[in-house]
Amino acid sequence: MKLILIAAVANNNVIGGDNKLLWHLPADLKRFKKLTMGHTLIMGRKTFESIGKALPGRRTVIITRQSDYKAKGCEIASDIKEAICKVREDSDVFVAGGGEIYRQVMGLHYARRIFLTRVYANFEGDSFFPNIDPEKWELVEREEFQPDEKNPYPFAFLTYKRRK
Questions:
Q1: pLDDT in tens, 55-77
Q2: Interatomic CA distance for residues 35 and 17, integer angstroms
Q3: For the residues 90-97, what does the mean pLDDT come to?
Q4: Rounded to the nearest 5°, which phi and psi values hold at 81?
Q5: Looking at the domain that runs over 2-162, which CATH code has it been given?
Q6: Which of 16, 40, 145, 152 could be bridged to 127 by S-S, CB 3.0 to 4.6 A?
């Protein structure tokens, strides 16, 4: 099994605020769908609730400490360890947030890639993506985009892989 972190991150590492995305970039949403379709998603409860439903075409595992939590079409795990046990037979498993889940997964040897959308703007928020340590992660692909009629901020698609 390979864990892949996937996130959209502002210049100041903000990923959200008040349990919401703070920007709208259709190109990022399209990339997220393309990369994750047919795969498993692991996410925290707050991230799931900000989306509001299980995403079609993807198995979803929600991490929560609430023992009685239920979400239609989703599996529940009490922590990252239990979530990984549930999905260990899957080849590519995407971790979709939030900040605390990303922090926990970054240090695991299962974490092999990071697909990051870097939004070239700063936002006020309360959830952050951890710093990417260049000693542990190598930037292997970068694609830059300028704002257009649908995407109001400049951004880049970045792909990191774990160094050996």
A1: 999 999 999 999 999 999 999 99
A2: 24
A3: 95
A4: -65, -45
A5: 3.40.430.10
A6: 16
